[in-house]
Amino acid sequence: MGFFSKVKKLFVSPEDRANQALEEYLGDEKPVSPDAEQEVPTQVVAEPAPEPIAKQEPIAAPVAAPVVENTTEPVPTVQETVTPAPTPEAKAKTIDPVKDGGKARVIEPSMVTESKADADKPQWQIDLTKALQQADPRLSVWLELILDGIETAGDDLWARLQFLLEALEAPADEAADFVTSFKEWLEDMDYEHVDEFRSELQYRLALALELEDEEDEKSRLFIKLSEGLAKTREQITKRIDSLLSSHTAFDDDFWEEFEEILIMADVGYEATTELVDRLKERIRKSGETNPENFKTLLREELDDIFKVPKRIKAFTPPEVVMMIGVNGVGKTTTIAKIAHREQMQGRKVLIVAGDTFRAAAIGQLEIWAKRVGAGFFAKAEGSDPAAVAYEGIDYAVKNGYDLMLLDTAGRLHTKSNLMEELHKIKRVLSKKHDEAPHRSILVIDATTGQNALSQTKLFHEAIGVDELILTKLDGTAKGGVMIAVTMQNKIPITFIGLGEKMEDLRPFNGEDFAKALLISDK
Predict the structure, then answer these.
(1) Which of 121, 221, 374, 465 is the most exposed place for a label (fewest CB within 10 A)?
(2) Per-residue pLDDT tens digits for 177-212
(3) Strand ordering across the sheet containing 439-445
(4) Would residue 190 be called left, alpha or beta, if left means φ above 0 and alpha means ψ between -120 and 50 degrees?
(5) Is 375 in contact with 340 (CB distance < 8 Å)?
(6) Taking a C-beta distance cutoff of 8 angstroms, is the pair 289, 403 a contact?
């Protein structure tokens, strides 16, 4: 479920919604043909005419509360016909009276956009409604219409945003909460002009309306990913293009140069050897002999490497996620970004400050929790981290949280006492809450190259890692380490950091990564 308990993903005109309701009522039956109409009498619901259409009481306007008729067969909830009072908006519909013993029945969906007569609406609402109904059903197009003529945040923007959400049938109180949350964020970030917050607003709407998988939004993410991989692409793809232009066959010289390119891009020796072997096997099976098609084969191989079977885990709320990683990798801001993302998707999130040793760690996390609107739990600096985790679960359960994000200490990964401490926290969590922690997520810094690979190996061997998040991918030419950590540890990468903003933590998609990495810059 998203931020809203109820919402439509498309802006639909009243006529289309009425047609959809009729189709749902008729089920799988095909429209009645002219020949069939002669055999089966039908009842037409239409605007009043001088002469009645059938020997039956005229159809009345739909009432607010539907009247349901009990029948021996299950039928959709509908309204029974009563006295005549046709509305000007009624469209002619053909109903089959045979379905209910000869009694005509009417379906009239409730329409938020028609709850107020056009004469009583402000002109901007009338114009905006028409524009939305005629526009392509894409979030970017809707946002363009909402922001048309608006340069800064203010009452006009809030009214338009609230109108869009209510037109999509989001409950009014939840729509108001969404707008209020965004207003508070703008004030906290000191943003005023549309150019400063437009991208964040689109990100929030995509999550809240569950439109992140929409093609338009995926295209926006792909562009962001391509920009973030620019330095890595220069290190890998340009050299591959040069390699392909100087070779006409997959000979020893070709593979030797290709191995050098991968090692220079921080893929590492072991991963490079494995990748080359896999590519040779793929080429052998495909029968390909032309190096010009090498990038396509490489793209397919990378896609296979990053594919991870989906895991479905059932657990009793709250879900407990243990965030681990050394100091300086961006763990604190990553926790805030995950909390922000999950809340926009409708979950109640608690951040627990389990790093009680690092100076200012608790204060920094509290600031981020307030900024994203998440709950926060902490004890005094120097407290036992395992005790903080234990009491944090108590607090999460009592207050109905869906997700608990537990920060942990991140002293140098070579210190054995850090691993012992993390082991202790995991033991306490498992005793306190069934199967906790449900996920252990390691945050690594992509700019550190092979050091990130060694961190992954040490943490995974010591306490077990379920997922990886790579930060700072937009500022490094060492993005090849993503290939190495996945191949050598068989741990899925779930998110990547492409910048400092909340929206810059994005789900990782191996296919998109391969495409963005191997695009040749012109």
Answers:
(1) 121
(2) 899 989 988 988 889 999 999 988 988 888 888 887
(3) 375-377, 349-352, 403-407, 319-324, 439-445, 467-471, 493-497, 505-507
(4) left
(5) no
(6) no
DSSP string, 434-484: TT--SEEEEEEEGGGTHHHHHHHHHHHHHT---EEEEE-GGG-S-TTHHHH
Nearest to 265 by CA among 21, 481, 54: 481
Is residue 78 a contact partner of residue 106, using CB atoms and an 8 Å limit? yes
Q: Please give the structure tokens belonging to residue 473.
A: 């991918």
The average pLDDT across 270-285 equals: 93
CB 297 within 8 A of CB 283: yes
Q: Which helix (H) or strand (E) holds 352?
A: strand 349-352
How far apart, in Å, are the Cα atoms of 283 and each of 254, 272, 296, 445? 13, 16, 11, 33
Tokens of 438: 């449900």
**265 in helix, strand or coil?**
coil
Report in angstroms the alpha-carbon separations of 144 from 103, 121, 214.
47, 21, 16
Sign of CA dihedral 429, 431, 433, 437: positive
Separation between Cα atoms, residue 23 and residue 29, nearest integer Å: 9
Distances (CA, A) of 472 to 180, 451, 457, 498, 506: 31, 14, 20, 6, 12
Would the pLDDT of 55 be above 50? no
